[in-house]
Each structure stands twice: as structure tokens, then as C-alpha cells.
Design a protein that fits this description.
The protein is 83% helix and 0% strand. The chain is mainly α.
Length: 245
């Protein structure tokens, strides 16, 4: 079904451009876009831009996740940490990430560190709250069972809470990965000398809409690929959920 939807959109795009209903400056044809991407591929620029963007998204997202997971678990399990940390997380997460871009440039320059920091700011605080909710959704009966068996708190956390919440946490990570792609492109649009976002900015200056559309398609394909990869990995990691269905 999904393939049919994409095929229908592609045909509609071709029909509109082939019929001359919209000027190529505003909507290039699929052929123009594919030809431009092929030229960039042959020159090596497309591969280089994809590689640097994938590297940035991977490192930035991993850093955010490594910090968000333990903090989210602590907030979700212990009221002391909830009272101490959650108000700060709520306070910062309502600040627009775009407003941090000039500050991150001042703090770290325009290198990869700035891109990592933007991804961190854009995903960390949301991830913490998602993980917190995932941990809180663990049935209370599971925890009570651990207490009945006189398990210490750390063992209940390690053997009951985290394994029970892990499928939901994995889905939260998959959702936040989509946000990470958005904030990476924002960082590359404003302050970069390479990457997919940077090329889109450069193309805008010269009205190269075929390149813009081509890179937008690449971003969509990369985002969809990472999303489906995490879905597949989730099904493999948590096979027991498929059995229950």
C-alpha cells in the first residue's frame, strides 16, 4: 500500500511538470531532479554530503540518548529526582532550538561540535520526558512482585522496570531520531560548510530548485530508512510482543 502511495505521488508530480502547469523554477520535473542527483553522485559530492550528515546525526543522537536514558529512568522511578530535574527539563524544552543556533556558534564555532550540540538540545529534553513516561507505564504489579520477593531497589530497576519499559523506550528513541534529523538540517542550513543542509542553502542562493528537491528527497529517504531500520530492529529485539499479538 505504501508503495502505491509513493507511486501515485510520483505520477502526479510527473504529470504536473510534463503538462507545463508549473514552471521548472518552482517545481522541476522528476527527470531533472534525478539527472542533477546523478551528476552529483558522479562527482562524489552527493556521497560526501550524505556521509558527513549521517556521521553528525549518528554521533549527536547517540550522545543525547546516552544522557537521556538514565536521567529519564531516574525521574520516572524516584520522586526525589522527579522533583529535582523534571521542572528544569520542562523549562528548557519549551525554548525554541533555533534560538540556540547563534549561541552554539559562539560557544563551539561552526564545526561538528556545534551540530552535535544542536541535536542534543533538540532531542535530549524530549527524550528524557518520553523515557520517564515509558518507565511510569510499567504495571505496578510487576514492581510489587519484586518487593514481595524482597528484591533491593536497584535489582527491581535492573531486572523488572527497565526490561518491561524497553520496548516503549525503543519506540521513543525511534520518534526522537526523526527530530534529530530536523535539527541537524537546521544546524547545517545556518552554519556549515558541508552536509545536506548546507547544499540546500547554497542551491537556494542560485535558484537551483532541482538540487533542493533532490536533497529533500535524499533526506526523506534517509529518514525513512533509519525509521524502518529501527522498526525492524525492535521487532527482532522484542519478538515476544509479536507473539502476544
Amino acid at each position: 500500500m505504501a508503495a502505491l502511495v509513493f507511486a501515485a505521488l510520483g505520477l502526479a508530480w510527473y504529470a504536473v511538470t510534463a503538462g507545463g502547469l508549473i514552471r521548472p523554477l518552482f517545481l522541476p520535473s522528476p527527470g531533472q531532479v534525478l539527472a542533477r542527483l546523478d551528476t552529483l553522485r558522479q562527482s562524489g559530492q552527493l556521497t560526501a554530503d550524505i556521509s558527513i550528515s549521517v556521521y553528525r546525526i549518528t554521533v549527536g543522537f547517540l550522545i543525547s540518548t546516552l544522557f537521556a536514558l538514565p536521567i529519564g529512568v531516574l525521574i520516572g522511578c524516584y520522586r526525589f529526582w522527579e522533583a529535582a530535574i523534571e521542572p528544569l527539563v520542562d523549562f528548557v524544552r519549551y525554548m525554541p532550538v533555533v534560538a540556540f543556533v547563534p549561541l552554539t556558534i559562539l560557544w563551539t564555532g561552526t564545526g561538528d561540535g556545534q551540530k552535535f550540540l544542536i541535536i542534543f538540545i533538540g532531542t535530549f529534553f524530549q527524550q528524557v520526558l518520553l523515557v520517564m513516561d515509558n518507565v511510569r507505564s510499567v504495571p505496578r504489579d510487576f514492581i510489587n512482585l519484586g518487593r514481595t520477593l524482597e528484591m533491593p531497589d536497584w535489582r527491581i530497576l535492573y531486572r523488572i522496570v527497565i526490561p518491561s519499559a524497553m520496548p516503549a523506550i525503543w519506540d521513543s528513541m525511534r520518534i526522537s531520531l526523526g527530530w534529530a534529523w530536523t535539527w541537524l538540517v537546521v544546524a547545517e542550513l545556518v552554519a556549515a560548510t558541508s552536509g545536506l543542509g548546507y547544499r540546500i542553502t547554497t542551491a537556494q542562493r542560485f535558484f537551483q530548485t532541482d538540487l533542493i528537491f533532490g536533497y529533500l528527497l535524499i533526506l526523506g529517504i534517509l529518514g525513512l530508512a533509519t525509521d524502518q531500520a529501527m522498526k525492524f530492529a525492535g521487532r527482532r529485539l522484542f519478538r515476544y510482543l509479536e507473539v502476544q499479538r
